[in-house]
Amino acid sequence: MPKIAVVRRDLPPTLSAVVRLGVALAGIGIAILSISVILGVDAWTVTERVVGTFLRPDMIRYLIVFLPVGLGLAVAYHARLWNLGAEGQIVMGAVAAAYVALFTPLGEIRVVGPLAALLAASLAGALWALLPGILRAYLNVNEAITTLMMNYVAYSLCNYLVYGPWRGRRVYGYPETDLIPDASKLQWVHGYSFSPWSLVIAIAFVPVIYLFLYKTRIGTALRGYGSNPAAVELSGLSGTRLIILAFFVSGALAGLVGGNEILMYHRKLVPGEKIGAGMGFVSIMVAWLADLNPALMPLSAYYVSALHYLRMVMQVGELTEPVARFFIGLVFMLLLVSIFVSKYKVVIRK
Amino acid sequence: MIVEELFESFFLFLLLAAVGDIIVERSGVLNLGIDGFITLIFALCYSATIAYGPIASLALVLVAGALYALLIALFVNLLHSSHVLTGLVANMVFYGLSVLIGYWGLDLATERGVPRTLLISIPLDWRTVLALSILAVSATWVFLYRTRIGTAVRACGYNPRSADYLGVNVWRTRLLSLVLGYIIIALGGYVYVLFYSKAWTPYIGMGYGFLALALAISSLWHPLLIALPTVIFSYLLRSLYVYQLEYGISQYILSMIPYLASIIFITAVIASPLGKKLPIPKALGEIYYKEERAA
Fold it and tell me: Do residue A135 and residue B80 have CB atoms under 8 angstroms apart?
């Protein structure tokens, strides 16, 4: 019987990039195929729409979500800390931003209002991530499961507010707050639903996180912590503090995005499931699609945003959303295969 | 009577899911994919029962469990993928697929003019539930602690490299415990649909998988300890709406209780002296790379 063995290899960067590109193209194929087969839309129409979504600036609204969250998560994942709670951290950021904009006098002031709301949002996201972080750092409680649980708690907390004490007076019974004051809104680019400022902030984080991870002592230690915690501790840095820092940074960026969702897109607090909309989970794969490299994150966020936006464009009945989940999941499955191809090879010995 | 309240179909579902998860995680596979599977199996079981009846549905559900285990094994064993990412991605795919399958069943019910609620008249009294749960727990304990294969499973979860040196085939053992575990989880899903919910709505079951996972952790992956937290949790989950009616607490506050409680429970157990004494699967989530000889 032939023996199958898997051995390690390093694919040259160019070939590795080609593999990733192949996955990206195959992913588009999967999207087209699943929409046209399952939803019964003819393939040519779908293809046209797909090409359209990649070229239309509307998808920038999603890029503004995926890019910063992906960057933040990359910081945690470099240290092999499984922060799977971006979804909840986004929701808590949204809650904090809505609070500042609706219930404090700051909300009525131009420029200061949105800035204060965004600051509060990132603080809320960071604190929400901090609880699992502290449990992991001091008691060694598995952070993957606690961060997942915190997502559901955040959903419920937000729903409690919009169905209960925060429900607006002018919303005709819908579970949402009143609109935030005009001074707090981030103005849209004419004809689209995103703000240029949010885009600038999102892109500005690319060099910031890159420099932090690769050019500072703490960033380097964080990257090393994943593969060898003992070595990092011997170099004189506290592992406990590194863990807390990684959770703080990734939570802060997710919270910031949540706040931005309120000021820029929803303009009011809506139920938690609508704010997160699964984007916190998709962001996890955005980070890995870019190989946790901040410099490649814009590309990966652009690609995933376009796929994510596709379902908004298709809008054929109630099955559109599950079909989108399905094909985005399949694309990421291919990504896992491609990671294998670029890191290992299969040898058959007789 | 209190025993009837405690030992009913929902408890049996949660116990089977948690016990199945224990078998999987004892082999060192971090089992985040359980949530997508439970969502899928609810939809599949509902639609298959409408289409082919309860017996064929049981067979189909068990086969689906084995196939899902093979898929996860393909990624974590052969493709050396991260266990966390494999689980998350599988969840995404199967959350989506579950809705498609569930709507197929709903449409079929309308087409044939049968009611959308399943009409199953087999009673499941507390004695049966208690007997079945004792059987599940003790069989799992015997399998994990009193058989050769069970010892190999635990060894793979504790230290796969040492297990390999002792002649255990890590891939094969992990595959075996995945298949066994997922068949038990699938059985739990069958119990839930046929005896508890008897109906399906989109994304029903989302989050239960993670709760089962939390239960497994809070019992330190020990099948004899799992019964207590599961009894408490299933009772808590089902009686939430009573508190809402009686004391007027918002249902949104109540719905965070199980998740907060499980975080507190896990932390308390891990921080307690018991958590330091019982051997837990230390290599949980570790990708096992066989050809590596150094270090």
Answer: no
